[in-house]
Design a protein that fits this description.
By secondary structure, the chain is mainly alpha-helical. The protein has one domain (32-304). 76% of the residues lie in helices and 0% in strands. The protein has helices spanning 3-8, 15-22, 24-49, 55-77, 84-109, 114-121, 124-134, 141-158, 169-192, 198-220, 229-256, 259-264, 269-281, 287-304. Helix 3 (24-49) runs antiparallel to helix 11 and helix 10 packs across helix 11. The longest helix is centred in the C-terminal third of the chain and has 28 residues, at 229-256. It is globular, with a radius of gyration of 20 Å.
């Protein structure tokens, strides 16, 4: 609801506060901040879930639940159904989701440490920038500096978790596949899969990802999970807030901004997740990590700052 309308109804809100809430900086940055927070919680919820269920089973239940959620919204809202081409584009994005998440979980199973995998996936803003530049998106010196600072921040946050390393060469290939999946998926969605109704698009993506992951969960893992409160709570969180709300925000941000600038927000995911791990799971925090957080935040600011406060495509 527009804040001016709230004031018209008699809410005692200072005029300066109304102006701040209506400013482009708040309208554009608040969704970005909420996206980073919600996406970061997915790592905590996923860490809890896979202690109670097989990895691909967890992913199948997560994306299957999200697909049903968006299907219910589509039935309730009855948006105009898009042409077959738009549906196929969303299906391609769904395939990249299955590749991205499936490859990460497969790398875990092959012995890759969470720190090493986070480092590889943390390169996504840089690989997206390189691919976008190759496709014609113009990036200034300030943006490249921001991307470099952000990556340096991620390295500092993760410096104490890289000891166990890669695990195996096959696991490394899995992580590279996951990095390619998230990079290609972001660019493809920005260019081809944003015109259709948001709920239809996310329904198709989730159901396609489910259809790819489900056979692995059934044949390899025998769909193993328990019904503990911890698992059910984390699964519901991932369905409604990670595959639900955070995917909606990512969809909206891509509609309004260049792929490179939106992907740069992922630099903040690693330090925010580290802070959550410190608060919720008593994981260690240090001055080096805090410095890494500051570098990542500064890098994101430089890479996303424009003449106008909004994150916009050129």
């Amino acid at each position: 609801m527009n804040t001016r309308a709230v004031a018209a109804r008699g809410a005692a809100v200072p005029e300066s506060m109304l102006a701040w809430l209506d400013s482009p900086a708040v309208r554009d940055r608040l969704p970005a901040a909420l996206f980073v927070f919600l996406w970061s919680t997915g790592y905590i919820a996923g860490k809890i879930a896979i202690t109670h269920a097989a990895p691909f089973t967890t992913l199948t239940l997560r994306f299957g639940g999200a697909g049903l959620l968006f299907a219910a919204i589509v039935v309730a809202r009855r948006p105009q159904w898009p042409h077959i081409g738009a549906l196929l584009h969303s299906a391609v994005v769904g395939l990249t989701l299955a590749v991205q998440f499936g490859a990460i979980y497969a790398a875990f199973a092959l012995g890759t440490s969470p720190g090493f995998s986070a480092l590889v996936i943390g390169c996504m803003p840089l690989t997206t920038a390189l691919a976008s530049a190759a496709l014609g998106e113009r990036l200034g010196l300030r943006q490249w500096l921001g991307l470099a600072l952000g990556l340096a921040g991620v390295l500092l946050v993760l410096q104490d978790r890289l000891g166990s390393g890669l695990g195996s060469g096959l696991a490394g290939l899995g992580l590279l596949l996951a990095l390619c999946g998230i990079t290609f998926g972001t660019l493809y969605q920005k260019r081809h899969a944003l015109e259709l109704d948001l709920n239809i698009g996310l329904m198709i993506q989730s159901l396609v990802a489910t259809s790819v992951l489900a056979p692995i969960a059934l044949l390899h893992e025998h769909f193993r999970f328990d019904t503990s409160a911890a698992f059910m709570g984390s699964l519901l969180w991932m369905i409604f807030l990670n595959s639900g709300a955070s995917f909606v925000l990512f969809f909206m941000l891509l509609r309004r901004g260049a792929a490179t600038r939106v992907s740069t927000l992922f630099y903040l995911v690693t330090p925010i997740t580290a802070i959550m791990g410190w608060l919720l799971m008593h994981e260690p925090m240090s001055a080096i990590k805090v410095t890494g957080f500051a570098l990542a935040a500064g890098g994101v600011y430089l890479a996303t700052r424009n003449r106008s406060p909004a994150i916009r495509a050129r």
